[in-house]
Amino acid sequence: MKRRLPPVPPRPPDPGGGGGGVGGETPSNSPNSSWVGCWLLLVSLCWLCYWNSLRCGFVFDDVSAVRDNRDLRPSAPLLDLFLHDFWGTPMDREQSHKSYRPLTVLTFRANAAAHGADAPAGFHLVNLLLHCLVCVLYHR
């Protein structure tokens, strides 16, 4: 059974009779300006929390998942991303962890092509930007 939300009542008209904005609102108090302010605050908080990661290297399993993964090299066939596990091991091998994440490995490969597989700052920057985007979209 699906739940239905009650309809949102319409906003009452602006008693001031206008002011230049959409729906009689002034640009300074329009919904768009308040959203932009919230988004800027969110992005600033994300940046403040994670900017220091840009100077750090790879940690834990990043070395084997990114730097040592042969599927991230430009010479590796793109089809291998769909035939290998997350670590670059063929799925039919006994040594494979069977962790199948081709989209993640594809983004790693694009990142490695843009910044180099030995440049953790590029990977950290992309992760930071994606984190900011997710926070803004979640807030929206």
Keywords, please?
single chain, 140 residues, mainly alpha
What report would you give on this structure?
The chain starts with 30 loop residues before the first helix and ends with a helix. It has one domain (32-139). The chain is 46% helix and 0% strand. The model has no long low-confidence stretch (mean pLDDT 81). The chain has 140 residues and is mainly alpha-helical.
Topology of this structure?
Blueprint: H1 31-50, H2 62-67, H3 80-83, H4 102-115, H5 120-139
Short description:
This protein is an all-alpha fold. It contains five helices and no strands. The protein has helices at 31-50, 62-67, 80-83, 102-115, 120-139.
Biggest sheet features: none
Q: How many domains is the backbone divided into? A: 1
Percentage beta strand = under 5%
Measured on Cα atoms, how large is the radius of gyration? 23 Å
DSSP, total strands: 0
Structural class: mainly alpha
**Average pLDDT across residues?**
81
- The best one-word shape is extended
- The proportion of residues forming helix, as a percent range, comes to 40-55%
C-alpha end-to-end distance = 26 Å
- SSE string, helices as H and strands as E: HHHHH
